[in-house]
Amino acid sequence: MTITHTHERHTEPLWLVQVDFPSGGPFGEEMAEAYSELAHSIAGESGLVWKLWTENPEAGEAGGVYLFSTREDAQAYLDKHTARLSSWGTEDIRGRVFRVNPALSRITRGLDHA
Amino acid sequence: MTITHTHERHTEPLWLVQVDFPSGGPFGEEMAEAYSELAHSIAGESGLVWKLWTENPEAGEAGGVYLFSTREDAQAYLDKHTARLSSWGTEDIRGRVFRVNPALSRITRGLDHA
Asked: CATH number of the domain at A11-107, please?
């Protein structure tokens, strides 16, 4: 029997969602407690490979970087997340969807475990 | 004998460098050919865990997202890369260094293989 691990093949391009916004906190462990439930929900988003949560208390900024397996899922998530942040009163949200360049990203170990 | 895989432990925080800028290309396979040598050089940067290369021909933007094992390496790389891009005539470079929130990023599979 042959088991195919599609995530290890990268035959289709992957898509990166990049979000950041001004934030007065919470940061660190308080941030982790405040958004733990949301993180479990995000882990189940359609097409999500992974998300890294980003924070910079000194600069007053926070955000996230996400890898998605399809462009449609990436854009749909960005639209949904931007609306959610706006509903919480977050302003000046900067969101981008990028294609991941597979050949270059492989050289720099970015797709070793995608 | 005990072998310690420090990268799998995440006892120290990781640092994300986020860079993007307006770009008229090259994109896709031409981009991969143009920057293959640079990618091999970046793969050897001090403290680099991985880099994902990002591109959006429709929006006319490109960039990169990097994971580093120390804040000092992250900031030093951002300074160096920004100077390199500027020397090539790239303007409006947007660069950020963020701490990765470990607890939340673990929930969303972002540190499974960091």
From this structure: 3.30.70.100
- pLDDT > 70: what percent of chain B? 89
Task: Look up tokens 């597979």; give the residue.
Answer: A102
Task: Give A105 to chain B, closest Cα distance, Å.
Answer: 5
Which pLDDT score, from 0 to 100, does residue B11 have?
65
* Cβ pairs bridging A and B (under 8 Å): 142
**Domain B12-107 listed as CATH 3.30.70.100:** yes
Q: Cβ contacts (< 8 Å) between A47 and chain B: which residues? A: none
Of A64, A57, A54, A65, nearest to A24 by C-alpha is A57
Report d(CA B78, CA B6) in Å as an integer.
Answer: 24
Q: Domain segments of chain B: what residues?
A: 12-107
Please report which helix (H) or strand (E) contains residue A61, including its range: strand A61-68
Nearest CA distance, A90 vs chain B (angstrom): 18
- Give me the residue label for tokens 């091999």: B40
Question: A55 pairs with which residues across the strands?
Answer: A62, B99
Structure tokens at B97: 């260094």
Higher-pLDDT residue of A51, A9: A51
